[in-house]
Structures are given as structure tokens and as C-alpha cells.
Amino acid sequence: MENQAIIESFAEFKDEKNIDRVTLMAILEDALRNQLRKKYGSDDNFDIIVNPDKGDLEIWRNRMIVADGEVEDENTEIALSEAVKIEPDFEVGEEASEELKLIDQGRRFVLAFRQNLVQKIQEHDNSIIYKKYKDLEGEILTGEVHHVRPRAVIIYDDDQNELILPKDQQIPRDFFRKGDTIRAVVRDVDLRGTKPVVILSRTDERFLEKLFEQEIPEVFDGLITVKKVVREPGEKAKVAVESYDDRIDPVGACVGMKGSRIHGIVRELGNENIDVINYTNNDQLLIQRALSPAKISSIVLDETNKRADVYLKPDQVSLAIGKRGLNIKLAGQLTGYEIDVYRDVDEDEDVELTEFSDEIESWVIDAFKSIGCDTAKSVLELSVDELLSRTDLEEETIEDVRSILRAEFEE
User: Fold this and answer.
1) What is the separation of C-alpha 180 from the centre of its chain, rounded to a whole number of angstroms?
2) Which residues lie below 8 Å from residue 332, measured CB to CB, with a gap of 6+?
């Protein structure tokens, strides 16, 4: 019972949540053998009998009996005079088995054994946690905010495991307080030494993809497939979806009546604007859909270099480019093409100057409009000298503007 009493004195083992008794006793034997090797040089001649049901173990050392004065290795050999103290009828050449008590190994042995055991149990727990979350990479987890730091939010899951949501993996509008519930995707799981570190993300494309699975039954059931997701977190996203059932409209099913289905996803992402697009293997049609809401006049594809020249009416250019260029940027990422947009104008057709706001600064446009030049041709009809005399613009600026305007009619 002495061994059991010592083992039971390791209080933290009694409440261990991540390990069953059988596994605990196996780890205990491994830790004990490690300590025996340190003390005796080898554990090959030791038998350790573990009883998981009782939480007890026995330690037996087996030594060959030799004549007195002929002991060369005290760990593997025992003098006859000592052996007969264990069993009176022992003889030279026989093997003597002697039970060892932990308490007889000394306080230093027991403390070292305890420390080694705690370390091995922690390593076991860490390996279980690492495998658990490694298998969950790309899946959504829900946890509670435990601590908010300047560079990360510390989250605890239901098992009180620590999860980390770094600042750069948070949506710009995210704001959390202690006790808040957070949903995020497991981005990756690393090992720092032996400790697993679980990194979450709310900016990862997989987060939006998994939200579609959670919120839209047809996606969860596999009737609709999310083909690709591209995002500018907190600002805009494009999601290409496809249905293998002609009876299902994938875009309509994802958006819902008056946006009812996608509204929860938009709210979760801090009002991120989400364009849902019907996927197709036709690159030209996919580009056209990706640049929505702009209406495309024509597209010239260079499939070898993955480039697309897109022609639009002047009033559609700004729609294709989008605010801060986000629409065309995400369309390029979604389709895999580098997209260039061009205004599609006839020689006899004029273009409002405001349609060039993506290339000409607004204050320059205002300067031309102040002298009655509202369109491209009205600027080109005046000479550089006349424009210099009638505006406060520099000659270089005027030349640059005229060059941009001329290019539209030379296409």
C-alpha cells in the first residue's frame, strides 16, 4: 500500500480530465522506468506490475545470485548472503526477485519521479490537444473571450483550452469584451516547444465559407457547393457558388428572400458586402459575373497569360472598378485573371469628364468644369495655351489630362 499511498498523494492526477486511469498508469510506468534508469543505470532487470483498477503498482528487481565477494554489478547481481535474507533456500546461480518500495528509494528519487510524471502527463495532454485542433483546421469554433490584449484576444473553449485570435486575424470593425462569445475558424495549430498553440481567424476565406455551411441548409446538405471565396475583410467579398441540381438557383438560395439568409452572415462579418456569383467554367462569363453590377460591352481574353481586357460604356467603368478598386481587385482574385478595364466609346460619342475620376483627380476635373468643359471633347477642342490662360492648372497637368482623354478615342 505504500506505493499506492505515494501515487495517490499526487493530487492533480485524481482530477485529471484528459486522461483515463489505464493510460495514466502506463505513463506512470514509463516515468518510473525513466527514473530507475537514472538511478541504477538500466531498468532491463526490473519488472513493474501495474494495477489500473486499484491505482497501484509493484516494483520487482531481478538479480543473479553469485558467491560472496564476486559481485561485479550490484544492479544485476546479488551476493548469496544477501539473497538468503529474501528467501532462505536461495542458491548460487538462481535469480532472486526483490520487491522495492518507492519510499525506500529516498525523497530525492520520489520528487524526481513525481516531476517526471507531471511532465509526461502534460506532454500527453498537449499531444491530445494538438491532434484535436489539428483535425479541426478550417472549421469554425465558438469560444468565450477570457482576456483582451492589444495584439490578440485570448479565448477559452468549452474545455477551457486557450485559443488565440491575433489582431491581424480580426475584422477591422471587431470589438470584443471579456465574456463575449466569438465565432472564428481554426487557421492553424503550431507547437511551441511541446505546447500546442491554436490560432483562430475571422479574416480567413474559410471562415466565410464555413458560415455559408452553417447558415444555408442547401450548402450544408451539399446541394450547393461553394467553389471559391475571396475577401477584403470587413469591406467586400465575392463568393462563387454552384448547384448540380438544375432545379436549384444557387445564388437565390444563398441570398434568400430579400437577403434574409445572407443577412446573418453579413452581420457576423461587420456588415461586409457579399456578392454571391453563379460559378461557371466559362472564363469570359465568369469575369462578366464577377464584375457585377457593371454591365460589360465586350471582353478580350489572353488565356495563356491570364489577362482580360474588359470594355464598358463610360458610365459603367466606375461600377466595375468599385470603391477603392475593390470590385475589380476581388473579381481578378476570383477568376484568376488580371483584369484591365477600358471605356467603350464611338468616335462621335462624347464622355463626361466625371467618368475619368479613376484616372484624373477630382480637383482637376472641377477646374475644367469651372470654364465650361464638362466632357472629354470639350477639353480636347481647346488648345493647351487657351486652357493655360483660362485655368490655374500647370501645363504638365493639362498635357497629362489631354493624353488620357485622347487615348479613349484612339482605341
Assistant:
1) 20
2) 338, 339
